[in-house]
Amino acid sequence: MDYQALLEQIQHQLQPVIGQGRVASYIPELAKVSPHHFGMAVVELDGTVHAVGDARVPFSIQSISKLFTLLMAFQCEGDALWQRVGREPSGNPFNSLVQLEHESGIPRNPFINAGALVLADILCTRFAVPENAVVEFMRRLAGEKDIQYDRRVARSERDTAHRNAAMAYFMRSFGNLRNPVPQVLDAYCRHCAIEMNCVDLARAVLVLANRGVVPHSGERLLSASAAKRVSALMLTCGTYDAAGDFAFRVGLPAKSGVGGGILALVPGECGVCVWSPGLEPSGNSLAGSLALETFTTLTGRSIF
Ligand code: GLU
């Protein structure tokens, strides 16, 4: 498969829609990003990189961090994790509070904000400085030592995190957060503020495409079964309240973020990451979703 030519074709085909959609503005620092960026990368299991456009420009990974904090929390807790967070699509916006009351403070899945706050709580219990542990984990997976979180983005989100604070206090009232809420919120906002580019993210997700083994180091990080489970959650819950439509259109496990990134994988083959900050109303990148849809249509590489 000539992935480089394919990416060039996708970028060319998408020119008319790049810049459409709305950049997330509820986190003030994110509102400053131009909607006209577009980057896309494919990294194959043998490490071969294909990239176009802004694929090497760092962006705010936002909710894509939830995928990696899930891997870390799963490593820490094993199956006990599922007593504190569910595995069903929520059918509600990512920052919704409504289900938490009916479901006694147990979030529907790890990829909505409430679920990721539970993951952050687990990491606060396990690590003295959880944001450094997550950054270190990302560096290991991506084989890139320059990864960092953006302090201005983290501060901007923390200053406006009223809704996440409400969720966190609510879950704490049910006993599903163990650490002080301000500490959990600090960690969560710093995880979301990690900056990475498409190439590094596509390389980092290879651990799932390669059934739990980091291809460039040979390190087994997860069992094959855990990699399968996390990939399944990406398919059913990874792209906000549009995960059904995304599976229908794209047919790959993926995790998106309001920074405009979408990270996907083709099991046994490659990681794919696209970034374009203009969002659809669902919160997924508009050009990014179309790019991945075109990718699977042209290559036939979906899981179905
Ligand atoms: N940091 C964002 C929030 O908590 C993440 C949102 C996202 O990318 O889905 O609202």
Describe the structure.
The two termini are 18 Å apart. This protein folds into 2 domains: 164 residues, Beta-lactamase, CATH 3.40.710; 128 residues, DD-peptidase/beta-lactamase superfamily (Beta-lactamase). The chain contains 13 helices and 8 strands. The longest helix has 14 residues. The mean pLDDT is 96. By secondary structure, it is an alpha+beta fold. Strand 6 and strand 7 form a beta hairpin. Strands 2-1-8-7-6 form a 5-stranded antiparallel β-sheet, with helices on both faces. Helix 4 crosses helix 7 and helix 7 crosses helix 8. Bound molecules: glutamic acid. The site of glutamic acid (GLU) has 11 residues, from loops.
Put the structure in a nutshell.
This protein has 304 residues and is an alpha+beta fold. It has 13 helices and 8 strands.
